[in-house]
Amino acid sequence: MKHNVKPSLALTAALLLSASVVTGCATTPLTMADVPAVHDRTLTLDTHIDIPLTYIKEIDPSGPTALQVDLPKLDAGQLDSGFWIVYTPQGELTTAGIAAAQAISETRLDAICKLTQNFPESFGLAKTADDVRRITDEGRHAVLIGMENAYPLGLTGYEEELKIYTEIGVRYVGLTHFGHNQFGDSSNPHPTRDNGPKWGGLSPDGRKLVDILNKNGIMVDVSHAGKATMMQAADLSRAPIIASHSGVKAVADTARNLDDEQLRKIAEVNGVAQMVALGSYVKLPTAKQAAAREALDKEFGDRSGWWPSKQARYDERRKKIAAMAPEATVADFVDHIDHAVKVAGIDHVGIASDFDGGGGIDGWKDASETQNVTAELVKRGYSEADIAKIWGGNLLRVMEAVEVVAEQ
């Protein structure tokens, strides 16, 4: 665990500025020997940590587990904080589909709350940027809640449904997931339910939802959203938006990754794009791997109804396909950060692991290896102030801006 008391981001910036003024020049470039101390001083925030439906009920995250994120791994890697995710797969736009989705989301939401309730000495629920700083200063891990896929909010009455999630602690909502929903088009249409774009971006309800999220102090998340959906959300939102876990197309051209126009739009609205460490979005598969993955997905079908045992079988098969070629590395991952910084600017880029949801690359397999990302940033020449922005400062700035808009 990091030291219980560490300077705030504002104080860190002030100290760095002071050092620059005293010396009359830029601060001395970091070396690899500086990595442990820099990592220790940096508030690290991962915007996407998934959990299984058996979390807390059958899995005790306070001890060693088979998960990529548990307390021993968080402590070992000095990963201070993150968004634990209420993920719901996309189902049919029917009353029955919504009911099933709400049951899934409630199960995950309850588990995240119990994480902080059962282990208050190690975890604290954060609802504001200041909460994150306070909890991590206390030497605990700050647990924020993100909602991946707005689908469970319903076909009607979603403003009231959102209030329930908001009161509990949800602080970002992803508009879509795989497959179009009632709020907008996805970057990845469902192979059987969807036939091209459904709405041409946001639906009328999606436009209303963006406004409701602004009013409630919830960050609008455009990861998984189609480009038109994302661009329209950026223009409509009165607060900065985020892409909670996305890569960049210029490095790996997949449907889910962001192109340069999208990166510039996120910067234009003072948002942040969180680069994701999920191998298939970091580094493109070979033709042989792509064919094998397509065949596997066809064999296993729609994942929305999978039990943990089926998910485990699928994951094991995916591992064998991944082993056909060298996997993505931390260096490959930071290539995405480099490009996003070049296009959007240092103030608009962050980090997401997607651990326990498919994430993990060579060098950052789980939370215990988090320092390796900081090491690669140092190796690339980033300053400590820049590393602090990428690792959490930018996201906390957006949170604060969203909080201000909600108060207006």
Automatic annotation (TrEMBL):
It holds the Pfam family Peptidase_M19. GO terms for biological process: proteolysis. InterPro entries: Metal_Hydrolase, Pept_M19. Keywords: Signal. PROSITE patterns: PROKAR_LIPOPROTEIN, RENAL_DIPEPTIDASE_2. Residues 1-24 form the signal peptide. The keyword Iron does not apply. One of its GO terms (molecular function) is metallodipeptidase activity. It comes from the Bacteria. This is Peptidase M19.
